[in-house]
Specification:
- Helix 10 crosses helix 11 and helix 13 crosses helix 16.
- The longest helix has 35 residues.
- This protein has a 5-stranded mixed sheet. The chain has a two-stranded antiparallel ribbon with strand order 6-7.
- It is 57% helix and 10% strand.
- Strand 6 and strand 7 form a beta hairpin.
- By secondary structure, it is α/β, with parallel strands linked by helices.
Length: 387
């Protein structure tokens, strides 16, 4: 007799509903402490539950998943798809509805990577958070500089340059003389804008409070950079230890370096059997155009929602690949933007989608990337015909 279970996970409680083929319904509410989750597991085992389905509610589902994973066949379902299924009434409890959908095989589980890949994801997404914090701290630091009427940011490419950081360090040490500060500026910046202009931009009024604020912000930036490097080193260690071949193969693709390769492994894993085709991976990432057509009228071709962290990484890789000489992606980008006059950003999304297709084949076929070349293709066809 088949028995399935639906779980409605909240921050401080888990609503359980066991549904049997005979129609028997068992409902109970559990807490979220570890011993309470283990009691819930023992109860499900005593009733012969084989399949468990839960909605992906924030991060609250993760500890429940870890407790149950070794003992049941689990499905993690997007709440959006649960709500779209017909037949749900207002008086039906969430857990019971989830169990009923599971019993009737109406839902399909989402992709949940193995534990080691989940650890990589934590490091990867921590790096994204640190990047955002670093950008915010740099913006605050420049606001303090502007308050002192030091306008150096008007003449440097960005506030993360070596010259800008050296000036901030000198100001924190109490040096405010423009003649001393200008010694920290790169000669290329001085030659471009003129010594008098840069010296005037370094002349301002700096109070003790502003010196302390700049020092604190600089310390926070250094701490963020150190934590970011620690996460990157840990990711590289895990990838080189457990996925060395996959890491090497990904780095044979134009536009993908060490940081991007580790991020890709963290987000999609190395087992491509989870994605039946390359198009499935592109759709899961949100890079596939939506099919919004009615009465032969196309309403939208915008890309869909998907893994935002994967999209950020692959778009950055697309920028690099479109600028790599003598590769398929740069030739494709040039033809679309310069010959066909298409929008540059839309072409970039298309390049990212093609990159993701290449990544799927590299990991699925366990082979190095081979660049598409018309000349090589013609030579191969000629050799086959002569043979």
């Amino acid at each position: 007799m088949r028995a399935v279970c639906g779980l409605d996970v909240h921050k401080d409680s888990v609503f359980l509903c066991i549904l049997c083929e005979t129609g028997e319904i068992i409902e109970k509410v559990f807490g979220v402490l570890t011993h309470q989750l283990r009691d819930m597991r023992r109860m499900m085992q005593s009733h012969g539950v084989s399949e468990v389905t839960m909605e992906s509610t924030a991060v609250y589902w993760i500890p429940v998943w870890r407790v149950l994973e070794p003992h049941f066949h689990l499905k993690l379902v997007n709440p959006y798809f649960i709500k779209q299924l017909p037949g749900r009434k207002s008086d039906v409890k969430d857990a019971q509805w989830i169990a009923e959908c599971t019993l009737k095989d109406l839902v399909r589980g989402s992709f949940v990577p193995p534990e080691r890949i989940q650890q990589l994801r934590q490091y990867d997404r921590r790096i994204f958070d640190l990047d955002a914090e670093i950008v915010r701290k740099l913006s605050k630091l420049d606001a303090v500089m502007q308050r002192c009427n030091i306008r150096l940011s008007n003449y440097v490419s960005n506030t993360d340059t070596k010259s800008y950081k050296n000036v901030v360090r000198k100001l924190c040490e109490g040096v405010t003389d423009p003649e001393e500060l200008i010694k920290e500026i790169h000669s290329r910046i001085i030659n471009r804008h003129g010594r008098e202009t840069i010296q005037a931009a370094l002349t301002g009024e700096v109070s003790d409070a502003e010196k302390d604020t700049m020092r604190q912000l600089r310390d926070e930036l250094d701490l963020g950079e150190r934590h970011k490097q620690e996460c990157m080193d840990k990711m590289m260690y895990i990838c080189k230890t457990y996925y060395p071949e996959e890491l090497r193969r990904l780095m044979t693709i134009p536009g993908i370096g060490e940081r991007a390769a580790t991020s890709l492994i963290a987000e999609i894993g190395v087992d491509m059997t989870k994605f039946q085709t390359a198009a499935h991976l592109a759709s899961w990432s949100g890079l596939k155009p939506r099919n919004d057509e009615s009465n032969k009228k196309i309403k939208s071709r915008r890309i869909t929602h998907g893994n935002i962290f994967l999209r950020k990484t692959i778009i950055e890789c697309a920028w690099g690949a479109s600028r790599t000489k003598d590769c398929f992606f740069s030739r494709f980008s040039f033809h679309q933007t310069q010959v066909r006059k298409k929008n540059k950003m839309k072409v970039l999304v298309a390049v990212a989608r093609k990159l993701l297709i290449a990544i799927w084949h590299v990991l699925h076929d366990k082979t190095d990337y081979k660049d598409f070349s018309v000349k090589n293709d013609c030579e191969t066809s000629a050799s086959e015909s002569n043979g």
